[in-house]
Amino acid sequence: MALVTQHWQELEKKYYMRTFNRMPVVLVRGEGCRVWDEQGESYLDMVAGLAVNVLGHCHPAVVDAITRQARQLIHTTNLYYTIPQLELAQLLIENSCADRIFFANSGAEANEGAIKLARKWGRLKRGGAYEIITATDSFHGRTLATLAATGQPKYHKPFEPMPAGFLSVPYNDLDALKRATSERTCAVMLEVIQGESGVHLADHDYLVGVRRWCDEQGLLLIFDEIQCGLGRTGRFLAFEHHGVEPDIFTLAKGLAGGVPIGAFLAKEACSVFEPGDHGSTFGGGPLACAAGVATVSTILRENLAAHSAEIGAYALGKLRELQARHPVVTEVRGLGLMLAFDLADEIAPALALKALGRGVILNATGPRTIRMVPPLIIGTAEVDEAIAVIDDLLRQG
Ligand SMILES: Cc1ncc(COP(=O)(O)O)c(C=O)c1O
């Protein structure tokens, strides 16, 4: 390994919290679907900063927007009106089923806001109901409330006791959700496609059934679109595939093309916050929102959702061919550019490491699962390049 890489690895080991198992490269530059390490080696980025760099790296529209805004106004408080915040609010509301928005700084923070909104609504409109039903194997963030909402006990253990008011039931199991509902329930919170646990799609009938159940019982439906939203699955928002509208939904990740941001959006009927109920020093700041306006308007103008659908279908076909050639690939899943495949053996992390050595960045979401969430601007040539490397590595065993 190059000495300079070793230097940064040693610094990390010495000073950084022991939170990440990092891949052994130091990335210093990005452009389009590629990133470069400090030795000048390039890598095809099939994970896009984990579904963040939706326009690829350093897209000119995002770079220009940040540069222009940085010269004009980087930050002020939410006690004043700022233009990029209102432009991004208008863009997202006019292109979704929501009526109101609040900007946060991350996905977890967006979900925290959605949870608070649902709890306040429950207090006002459902006799003090506060419980939120989520799904097993979901992922909603790393703050205490969003961890409690995350249906993966392995993430809870070190931090117990978890905040009260959350319970998770198996995904795609409407009866389980019905059985879990009580007078304490105020909302159901789901990912339309579970990302972190390895790209698991909700059944259409399930989502339709959940919506109907929430209507019958007077519950709010919250969709976490943090990973699957903003064009990735072939629609601007993933729930649009199902003709089902949530009462509240959350966005983050790709919303500002790589600049930290999050948002929760709600229908008027459940927008029950009043002054003082919620706030954020940085949320909705001019710099992030200017990047957000550039990113979202590019996604819409260039119809990147349709592009994701087309390239995603191509990639899924290629993954299915790969599965036919390699029995070790046991299942292939995906919608648009949210893709994964399972392996019979626990070789996913080793495969991702070998792929890195061959210039392709993949993500192992578990010992047997590889996920790909590339930039939405990716083309068939890049898909072919990634598949060829995976094919070769699987052939070598
Ligand atoms: C569906 C979903 N919700 C929430 C989060 C948390 O977002 P953040 O890491 O920005 O807090 C993630 C992150 O992976 C996610 O995939």
Write the layout of secondary structure elements.
Elements: H1 3-15, E1 27-31, E2 34-37, E3 42-45, H2 48-51, H3 60-72, H4 83-94, E4 100-104, H5 107-125, E5 131-135, H6 144-149, H7 153-156, E6 166-169, H8 174-180, E7 185-191, E8 193-194, E9 200-201, H9 204-217, E10 220-224, E11 248-251, E12 262-266, H10 286-301, H11 304-325, E13 329-335, E14 338-343, H12 348-357, E15 360-361, E16 363-366, E17 369-372, H13 380-396
Parallel strand pairs: 3-15, 5-6, 5-7, 7-10, 10-11
Antiparallel strand pairs: 1-2, 2-3, 4-12, 8-9, 11-12, 13-14, 14-17, 16-17
Helix pairs in contact: 3-10, 4-10, 11-13
The rounded distance between the terminal residues' Cα atoms is 24 Å
Question: CATH topology of the largest domain, what is it called?
Answer: Aspartate Aminotransferase, domain 2
Rg, nearest Å: 21 Å
Q: What is the makeup of the main sheet? A: 7 strands, mixed
Count of domain modules: 2
Helix fraction? 25-40%
Indicate the overall shape: globular
Number of H/I helices:
13
List of distinct ligands in this structure: pyridoxal-5'-phosphate
Q: Give the CATH H-level superfamily of the largest domain.
A: Type I PLP-dependent aspartate aminotransferase-like (Major domain)
Order of helices and strands: HEEEHHHEHEHHEHEEEHEEEHHEEHEEEH
Strand order of the largest sheet: 4-12-11-10-7-5-6
Annotation, overall tally of beta strands? 17
Question: Would you identify the regions where 5 or more consecutive residues have pLDDT less than 50?
Answer: none
